[in-house]
Amino acid sequence: MKPTIRLILHFVAAACAFAAAAAQAQPSLPPAIAAQLDKDYPAIEALYQDLHRNPELAFAEHQTAKKLAERVKALGFEVTTGVGGTGVVAILKNGPGPVAMLRTEMDGLPVQEKTGLPFASTATAKNAAGETVSTMHACGHDVHMSAWYATAKLMAENRKLWSGTLMLVGQPAEEPLTGSEAMLKDGLFKRFPKPDYALSMHDEGTLPAGQVGYHAGHFRASADTVTITLFGQGGHGATPQETRDPVVLSARVVQALQTLISRENNPADPVVITVGSIHGGTQANIVPDQVKLQLTVRTFKPEVRKRVLASIQREVKGEAIASGMPKEPLVEIKPGADSVYNDPELTARAVKAVQGALGADKVVEMPAKMTSEDFANYGQAGVKAVLLHVGAVEPGKLAAARAAGKYPPGTHSPQWAPDFKPTVRSFITAETAILLDLLKPGQK
Q1: For a surface tag, which of 194, 254, 330, 361 has the fewest beta carbons within 10 Å of its beta carbon?
Q2: Distance CA 91, CA 190 (A)
Q3: What is the DSSP pairing of strand 290-299 with strand 340-342?
Q4: What does the pLDDT average to over 165-170?
Q5: Could you give the CA distance from residue 53 to residue 253 in angstroms, rounded to a whole number?
Q6: Beta strand pairing status for 212-214 and 384-393?
Q7: Residues facing 369 on adjacent strands
């Protein structure tokens, strides 16, 4: 046998042996922590069901915050409530080392639950407009909070395994994308230690329960709301020549806005412009004198965001001029959340830690999402941050839906019901593994 062939066969055999050994390996947390998680699980599930039954809307999470604050205080954390409205900050100092922050959201949504769960929410609440609405944890924040507390308990009871400062943040009002800003304005990183790292996790409707998804770099889109008021000249619907019809103009505007994506934007830089609301007119035979449109605009890159918003204003005003409208349209831009940027180095470190705890087959790269998250603000404040997603759909249901070319109910749906046990255990395992790595003793 020639030396070259022999060498090739040697490397092939070594690679196969390495792969076999890796396949046989059983990654896990330290045995003591795994045993504690098994012991704690009934209490974690009970907390989840309580939170699920009793959701509270943004900046009204009074009982939710109280439940979390009492539990982590009992673990030995220094707890401050009322930060940024209803936010909770809990600090556990455990010797020298970095400061690692774990954040959870606390608010529910104005959605009427239709899951049929025995612990389904029947709660109602007053929204910001004073209207009574049904409420539900339709985005899985109840799962997030349950895992947050369980991870805090494991970290508090295993202090010999880590060194540094653990900072827990229970954040209000993630759904309207205003809670993190409120906490930061209330001195989150001035009244308390500014973290070296910020970690958050979110349940995911496109991944099977227990699988962890990651994406380095821009992961969640910025979100801006644009309100456009078109002014026309009203009149009788039977004599349109005597009017300037803003309804027709609104149709032209909707079509024109889509060319900003198809003809002005680099396809490699995703942009979404959705006209979600058009209001104008009172009845069939009246041409109204104004029409209002409401848009959501999603982008990743700051320069793309700036250009698209400017182009919307240009396009709307140009269409109004072309239609001979008597007054220039009013274009109001309400800035929303920035794009979530996952620090690549921290993401790689987190992925390695989760792979070691759950197994490489449970960790997958996922595409960036055009949905938004105000977790972005912590990164904008100068903290290395990473947001990971955890699959929450029973694998068989997800596979069946995909085979049929359909999507199972996802977050913000009245039917959103995570496959709780495998989902929350993966949450807790991943959070704990990442924190133990970030707070490994002996680091500078």
Answers
A1: 361
A2: 14
A3: unpaired
A4: 98
A5: 44
A6: antiparallel
A7: 220
